[in-house]
Amino acid sequence: MTASWGTSSLRRTISHWSMCSTSIPNALARGLKQARSDLVALIITDITSPFFTDVARGAEDAARAAGLSLVLGNSEEDPALEAAYLRIMGERRVDGVILVPTTEATNALARGLPASIPVVLFDRDVPAVGADVVRCDTRTGTAALCRHLLALGHRRIAIVGGMPTVETWHDRVAGYQAALREAGIPGSPELEIPGNYKRDGGGAAVRQLLAETARRMPSSLPTPRWRWGCWTSSLRSGAASRKTSRWRPSTTRSRSRRSGHG
Questions:
Q1: How many other C-beta atoms can be found within 10 angstroms of the C-beta atom of residue 115?
Q2: CB 179 within 8 Å of CB 154
Q3: Could you give the CA distance from residue 146 to residue 139 in angstroms, rounded to a whole number?
Q4: Sign (positive or negative) of CA dihedral 199, 204, 205, 206
Q5: How many CB atoms are located within 10 Å of the residue 203 CB?
Q6: What separation in angstroms does the CA of 85 have from each of 126, 139, 171, 173, 222?
Q7: How far apart are alpha carbons 149 and 117 in whole angstroms?
Q8: Residue 192's beta-bridge partner residues?
Q9: Rounded Cα–Cα distance for residues 51 and 45 (Å)
Q10: Which DSSP helix (H) or strand (E) runs through 7?
Q11: Over the range 34-65, which residues count as b (16 or more CB within 10 Å of their CB) and which as e?
C-alpha cells in the first residue's frame, strides 16, 4: 500500500510540475541520440564586408528553411583562427561546414574536422581539399568590366585587388590582362596593385600608384569594394578633382551591398 501510494503521489507531483513549468528540450541529448546537431557552420574571412553579410544572410535563410541553425565564424584571414574554428566545429559535430578558406586551409581541414563532416568551399578553391566549391567566375567578370571601360574610351586602366596569396586576385589579373591584350594595349605592372579587400587597402593602392607613376593617375580603376578608399586618397593628394577628373567611381554602385569580394 505504501509503495502504491508513493508511486501514485509521485506521478501526481510530476504531472503537476509538467503542467506548471516550461520544459526546454535538451538539444545536446537529442543530438547524441540522433547522431546529428542540426547546426551548419559558416566560416568567413571578413565579417565587416557587405559581400559576406549578404552571404551570411542567404546561408541563414537556407538553413532555417531546412530546419537547421547557422553558426558563424570570422577567421579575419588568419589561418590560426581558421584552424581554431574548424577544430571547434569538429568537436561540436556540426552537420556541415561552409568555408571561405585562407591560404592554409588544407592543413586546417585535415587536422580540425572529422572526415564524416561535409565541407563546401565558398568564393575560393583549395584543389588539394577535393571539396565542392561555389564561386564566381572572377576572371570573366573582370575582363567584362575592363572591356566596358575600354569602350568608354579609357586606355590607362589600373586594377586594385586582393592579396597575392588568394586565388581570386590572380583570376582577376588574368581577366584584366586578357581584355587589355584584346584591345592591343600593353600591360603595365605598376598599374596592378594588390590590396587587402578593405577600404584602407584602396587608399594605400592609390598612394602606391601615385608614387610609382609620377602622379599620372589611371583614367579608370576597376575595383569593386575599395574604390571609396581610392577616391578619398586621390582627393587628399590632389591627384583628382570632383569636377574635372575622368576617374570617378559610381556613387550608386559603390554603396551597393552587392559588391564583390575575394
A1: 8
A2: no
A3: 11
A4: positive
A5: 22
A6: 18, 30, 28, 31, 34
A7: 45
A8: 159
A9: 11
A10: helix 2-20
A11: eeebebbbbbbbbeebbbbeebbeebbeebee
**8 Å CB contact between 66 and 122:** no
Host H or E run for residue 4: helix 2-20
- The pLDDT tens digits for 165-182 are 888 889 999 999 999 999
Residues 6+ apart with CB under 8 A from 218: 154, 156, 157, 158, 191, 209, 247
* Whether the predicted model's global pTM rises above the 0.70 cut: no
- Per residue in 211-231, pLDDT tens? 776 555 555 555 544 444 444
φ/ψ of 214, rounded to 5, equals 50, 45
- Distance (Å, rounded) from C-alpha 147 to C-alpha 155? 10
